[in-house]
Amino acid sequence: MGLFLKRRRGRKPSSYRSGMLAAIFEGIPSIIIFQLLGGPFVTGYLLYLGATSFQVGIVLAIPSMANMLQIVGALLIQRYSNRKLLFTLLCGTHRVLWVLTGAVPLMFPKEYGVTAYIVVCIAAFMGQAVGSVFWTSLIADMVPAKVRGRYFGIRNTILWAGGCIAIVAFGQILDRLPEPQGFHILYMVAAVCVVFDIFFFLKYPNRPFEKSGQQGTAAMLKVPFRHPPFVKSMLFISLWLFVQGISVPFFNYVMLDIMKLGYNWIAIATMTQNVAMMIGYSMWGNLNAKYRSKTLLFWTLPVIAAACMGWGLLPVLPDIPVLLLIHMLIGVGIGGFNQLMFNFVVGDTPKGERPMFIAVFYALTGFAGFMGPLLGGAVYRIVAHMPNWVQLFGISLAAGIVLLIVAVSIGSRVLLESTKWPRRPGAAGWRRGV
Fold it and tell me: Residue 260: exposed, middle, or buried by beta-carbon count in 10 A (0-12, 13-18, 19+)?
């Protein structure tokens, strides 16, 4: 981190350095919130509320579904260009509402608990989706392009280290305490983190915003679709997230409800995933300084497919080593995929039109990410009366095989093609996407 953030003694840090530091400090309580309320324990909390596999799928799909609202954020940012204020209000509201889901068992009868949780989550993630457009645009301007890949690799490593500590601690707490008491402590810690998170939101610098050169909503919406390589990449990633969503979000559901593992083992598996993710962040970040984001994005795909196919080893090898291997692979793969996808969409898009590129990209991929877990939840419900192995490893194994075929047959052609972005919307080749 000193590579970007060190300064000469006695000198005031630049706005770039102070902003990059603020993003790191803000990210630590944020990742703890996301790990406690949306990580491995959310499945346990939903099962405690009485959720079915289909309802678990709906909850897991809510963040992706809400991302379809990012187009609203891209339009608002042209009118309200105070990005710091808007993302603080919207993302802060998301954090507060999400913590309030902990009060569901106290405020609603048991038969309405899951429904109330879903409604509050939808409202929370609507704010998060719109606010993330302001945050993504702001942080893309805060971090210089030449250090972006390595910086986000280091930032994500630091953040996920905090996430690991939270997961290990609460894996022990939830295993040792009765469910209501353990979840009460979990939500109280998350509430404290919300306060710190909003405090650090206010430490971000409010850099000037470069508005779109397009006139009117329709013109702005058309811009991303004028670049065929971007459109092809977006469509492929949407397909990938759809198939991936049928299996990967349900790893914890299988371990808790099918394998009947305790929270402690869930925490160990998730910690293994997070440690692998941290190593992956650093590795992918360093490679990103030398190679294109899309090229590296392709090489994460076989890793994710292998993680899904790894469930097929359960009948022939001991459960725990197989689960640890699966979570190591998914950590390296998903961590790299998410980081490189972010770097691609903020680094390979023209600055003035970036909010709309981001919004269109996350709206379409968000819809695919929503449909995947929704279908996955329905599939797990349909096969509930079939032989146990279908739920245990059959669905994930099949999804992994499909993912590998998609990566080799389509991903190699889409992500490994050469792409040269024009400097501005009016530059030569913009309409041709060359």
Answer: exposed
Residues 205, 18: contact at Cβ < 8 Å? yes
Alpha-carbon separation of residue 148 from 10, 138, 152, 248, 343 (angstroms):
26, 13, 6, 28, 8
Q: Which of 365, 320, 339, 345 is nearest to 277 (CA)?
A: 339
Tokens of 70: 């990012």
d(CA 14, CA 249): 40
Instruction: Output the six-digit token pair for 342.
Output: 């972010």
Check if the beta carbon of residue 22 is closer than 8 Å to that of residue 196.
no
- Report which of 305, 326, 308, 23 is spatially closest to residue 147, judged by C-alpha positions: 23
Give the pLDDT confidence of 321-364 residue by residue, as tens digits.
Answer: 999 999 999 999 998 898 888 888 776 667 667 778 888 888 88
Given a contact cutoff of 8 angstroms between Cβ atoms, the answer to whether 96 and 128 are in contact is no
Q: In the predicted model, what is the mean pLDDT of residues 171-180?
A: 81
Residue 310 CB neighbours (<10 A): 22
Distance CA 130, CA 259 (A): 38
* Token digits of residue 205: 């610098």
Residue type, 97: L
Query: What is the pLDDT, as a whole number, of residue 418?
Result: 56
Q: And the tokens for 22?
A: 């603020």
Q: How far apart are CA 114 and CA 105, in angstroms?
A: 9
φ/ψ bin of 51: left (φ > 0), alpha (ψ from -120 to 50), beta (otherwise): beta
Q: Do residues 266 and 256 lie in contact, with contact meaning Cβ atoms separated by under 8 Å?
A: yes
CB 372 within 8 A of CB 244: yes
Alpha-carbon distances, residue 192 vs 88, 276, 422 (angstroms): 17, 28, 45
- Helix-helix angle 228-247:395-406, to 10 degrees: 160
How would you class 111 by CB atoms within 10 Å of its CB: exposed for 0-12, middle for 13-18, buried for 19 or more?
A: exposed
- Count of other CB atoms within 10 angstroms of residue 312: 18
Alpha carbon distance 299, 217 (integer Å): 36
Please report where in the chains the tokens 């919406």 appear, as a residue: 221
The answer, as to whether pTM is greater than 0.90, is no
Phi then psi for 413, rounded to 5 degrees?
-80, -35
Non-local (6+) Cβ contacts of 79 within 8 A are none
